[in-house]
Predict the 3D structure of the following.
Amino acid sequence: MPITTRAPYDGTYRKLVLAFDVGTTYSGISYSILNPGEVPQIKGVTRFPAQEKVGGSSKIPTILYYDRDGNVRAVGAESMRESLRDTIEEEGWVKVEWFKLHMRPKSLSKSNSLEEIPPLPAGKSVVSILSDFFRYLYTCARTYIIESHGNGDQLWRSVESNIDYVLSHPNGWEGEQQQQMRRAAILAGLISDTTSGHGRIRFVTEGEASLHFCLQNGFKSDAFKIGAGVIIIDAGGGTIDLSAYGATSNSKKDVYEEIAPPQCHLQGSVYVTLRAKNFLQDYLKGSRFAEDIDAMSDFFDKSAKLAFDCSPLFIKFGGARDRDPALRIRGGQLTLLGYGNFSRISVPVS
């Protein structure tokens, strides 16, 4: 991997590159419009449906809702709207989240004993769900580019038949997982099922993608010295990826090369939440608060977990009448006294 600045695009016609980062819990889009002779600029999609008033949000929840007939009804931030709660319940929509983990290699599954990943809806495969999500990301990218650039409609028409895709995946994903992602792209209509169509997709590991970003934005100058190296840790929703690169030199240019096999562990943040839920089920077993565990787990995931350290944790779930001093519950809030209480949900060391 050369340690250089970007060179001007040497193609003969304008092209668009869309990069989809589909994460276990959150996803994002970046893009670059390649004009002959110009140095490419990488930009991010920072506005999505139902997030218009947020401003500058570069990611959306990796969530879909299907109705009883299997039709997509809400995706991303749209699925989180309070106005949909009654409709979801009344019409029996099915929530799909963490579906990316159903693609995990069997070798990785053995590294984690927790098998509480939400099941896929009846009649849906992980490829079909991923294709629906790809289709949504494509629509979001199209809308954003048209609305964010001068003469956006004309710009889009000039590139819509010349789009390449970059799809990121965890370090531990292999050929089988890449094939599933390719099939999803075909099913979503992003590419044709031909040799030329397949050639419009490039796969990149999350470790390598992070290195590219750091090379352009984050490294200090001494990190580029020959003999220096970097370790990249990508702690995501589903996996924790570790990559090690060293700066070397050949006859033409300085490069970064992998100096150790990349690692991928199914120990991402969703597993912290799953272990917390298991702990709460054990802790509150037989109490009248057992029915509130889902609400507690949801609050832990969205709030308490983000400030997790050895200090007490406060998990809100109910109202002022919810009280049981023996369980450290007061005013609808459960207090856990720090690290000792979570010793049973610590991440196993492999």
Remarks:
- Residues 341-350 have pLDDT under 50 and may be disordered.
- The chain has two domains: 15-206, 276-345.
- The first strand starts at residue 15 and ends at 22.
